[in-house]
Amino acid sequence: MSSFGDYRQKIQLLLYQKWECLARISDSCYDGTGSNQYGRTERILENLRKRKFCRIRGKGRIAMRESCRILYRGGQGELTEKKSRFIANTRPVESEEEAIAFIEEMRKKYWDARHNCSAYVIGTKGQLQRCSDDGEPAQTAGRPMLDVLLGEKVCNICVVVTRYFGGTLLGTGGLVRAYSGAAQEGLKNSVIVEKQPGARIRVETDYNGIGKIQYIAGQMGLHTLDTEYTDKVVMTLLVPDEEIGSFTAAVTERTGGRAGIETEQELYYGRADGELVIFEE
Prior knowledge:
Largest sheet: 7 strands, mixed
Helix content: 25-40%
Structural class: alpha+beta
Order of helices and strands: HHHEEEEEHEEHEEHEHEEHEE
Number of helices: 8
Oligomer: single chain
Mean pLDDT: 83
């Protein structure tokens, strides 16, 4: 049989992951004697799993969702170097097939160009990375473009830089600067979004509690997605993953536990051109 210390370590591990709601739970689990607490602690952990405050996979392992920067809307940029034109086009992609299709589309659009060099990064952690020099000297086009994407930490993006030769050779260094500069110009004219993990939280309360919940949401800077008024009030809020615990604890405390709180859906969200964007999982 596991000791009570093992169960305390589970709580401490969750606290270490900054789930602030567990501060009260940890205190309530320990009565100073360490007796008759095993079942209670397990029930608390099971409740956390159901409420999706975190994902617990095996002993002591917690799966955390991470934020990432993605290309939300593609764009175009251009620069000229010694009469050679470098035209950069970017597009959001979520698979290698989409990236290849975009590259072929650019080849057809700029069929009379000498080179259509490309680079793409796919996956929230950049799991798939590819680049092509398309006839330019090795490591002078595709790799510098890929380095720009990796330096900006942007994923799910494909960039194609088209070169119209101006009659003057640029040399290795000149090509690297031109292709990386064109890629940067393309990114400047694109929309990049910080995609963050969160959840759609449904809160049900009476009319005495709505003002308290609105105050908490305002203090925490949460987005109210919907509010329904009938014989009761139902608010739907967008809550970042790291704030779910503290929000739940605050609502429970301020309403005396009378408000019903439910996680309706896990999702990702971000801001594009000042507007809230929700990405469904």
